[in-house]
Amino acid sequence: xKERLSCIIVGAGHxxxxxxxxxxxxxxxxxxxxxxxxxxxxxxxxxxxDPSQCFExxxxxxxEPKQADFIINGTMDDQHxxxxxxxxxxxxxxxxxxxxxTNEEEMWALVSAARRTGRKVVICHxxxxxxxxxxxxxxxxxxxxxxxxxxxxTEHVSYHHMAxxxxxxxxNRSDYCQSTMLMAKSCHDLDLIAWMKSGIYPTNVTSFGSNxxxxxxxxxxxxxxxxxxxxxxxxxxxxxxxxxxxxxxERWSFYVWDSLEHTDKPTLExxxxxxxxxxYGQCVWKTDMNVVDHQSVLVEFEDGCTATLNMIGGxxxxxxxxxxxxxxxxxxGCLEDNRFTIRQIDxxxxxxxxxxxxxxxxxxxxxxxxxxxGGGDKRLVQDFLxxxxxxxxxxxxxDIQDSVAGHLIGFCADQSLxxxxxIAVKMQDRMRxxx
Length: 435
What we know:
Dihydrodipicolinate Reductase, domain 2, 9-stranded mixed β-sheet, 6-stranded parallel β-sheet, 34% helix
């Protein structure tokens, strides 16, 4: 067996732990850096680490000589850049969670650092690695539909995902996590738009959105403040914490039961008690959230192409869809269906267009065997390991500089939302400085 690549986990949360265990035959964990003593202890136990391999911070790790081939950085959004900079300087390559920065200034600082140090930094754009989006991108790169004139994307964030992440959860306040809902949830989709237009810069962005549903004035008249304490309508409420987290105890367990992570096997009674005090037991209409529940983004590119993203939270069914229209045809599909349709003009008598359905389920490229995010999670790790091993990366894996456009669209969209105006994207000059 080939010698495995070594990695250190920085931020031992759900995502980093998943990536770290995706390919045990190709990689081994040789360290952890996390401010939580409990998480350091749990990680050390899981991977057989001794105290000298455990660090309280990325800064403490960076003070030591380089100890691994690469870093898996799964810290919270606002810690991505502060933890990455010293580790890049120390010489580590890095797999870094998205969004890789929470503002434009930080973004350019990290891109510059990667360029200066010569380190390989790959952002966790997991959707690029799904069979669905990867195959669509390949068809675009091959020129199948000509020049892309318009890109239409939608993300429907389910009611239970909206509640656990953006109403009751870690991303419900932009002043806490430093990311807006657009960047925390839909930077995947913004990246896909920019990736489909790779090499062509966005020039203008505008955006509209609000918290339409989840505010105190929209609460049912009888609603209490906590589902399991003072709410007489809990049994009939679609957003009951009992229904979301007790009746579905595993669906969001890595978020909802974080207050019980010190307990080896929490009981049902432990979980019910935690909901009486944790943020996840709050009435969804009476939290302190300050993020949107829906937002629309319109982008113009330098070649005249336009693109849209419609993100809507609180939908019955989670879904992502994309529709690309080019000079020679179009591609349209839904990620959850794992298939898309290619349509092309057919001017023959009695015809209007031809269509071909590309069904990735039939071809055997199923998503379930390759982890979450439509099959993108494990493929991301596999491609990253190939990349830092010196192999030719797939079309899905690119330098950090190719991640700038999608993030910049998001930052400009949020500025447009606040200032109610079109924002000019100042990208080309900054890229020239870095290059």
